[in-house]
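User:
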Amino acid sequence: MIYVGIDVASQKHDCFLLKDTGEVFSKTSFTIKNDFEGYKKLHNSILQFVESTKDSNVRIGLESTGHYSKNILLYLIKQGYQTTLINPILTNMDRKASTVRKTKTDTIDAEAICKFLDKNRFDFKPYTLLSYHIDALKSLTRQRFSLVKQMTQQKLIFQRLVNVIFPEFLSHFSNDYGESVLNILYSYPTTKKLARAHKESITKLLHSRCKITSSEILELAKNSIGQSEEYLGFELKHTIDMIRFYQSQIEIYNKQIEIELNETEYGKIITSIPGVGIITGAMIISEIGDINNFTTPDQLLAYAGLDPSVYESGQFESSHNKP
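Assistant: Predicted structure:
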């Protein structure tokens, strides 16, 4: 077995090649640039070590260091290597357990990854293209969640402005952010402007399913207690622009999430559960990861942080522990 440890950084990566018999590719680790030429240098070095040792079984470990490891990870997977991401806390603990010295360098880190792979050879779980798509779902769903939060903030601003400008308006619509509501308020952002509008113009902006008529809207505007200052109308139009922007961006993310979900083998399975749609299913898969990593339901429960904790000390044993 050949182990390859890679200490990942933004501009360069330090690599160490070690055979399970103790043979090393070079006396110290070597450095590659974080570019295509650097990746080819690593690939060729692995091939040379494979040829010299007559051992084609290669396992590669990278510490999970955010986005810096993504490009080289995908490159190695496409080259057919068994590659895994390792929590740096685990390798750090393993390194500290093996020596009392506080030395830490990139060279030592790369070698420590190799030794960690050797010690945990039976727990090796390679990163796959499925894992790549799951990570893509995690990134997309979290960014979508951020967009939803920002849109919610704009909706709160919208509610505040409408309550000041035209407080009688929204109660006549089933959806405060429907197209009819947004179209009318965007075209006539103050009650003064709305009261002067033609009935036919309002009718064109109303959805056919709306219960309120254009005549009733005009009458509400004429008798409204709301304020008609220009700056309020300006803020309202800008807020509507922002709501529409976030709506369009969320829709774009929805389509991309559906594409990535279909790339996984779990997409059709998760959405077959009653009440679980594409977005909810994608969020579940992205946060759980590869379900094959869990051999029992209890492991999944523990990963989700839902298993009850146990607290016992001396003669005391708690019986009301929360997850």
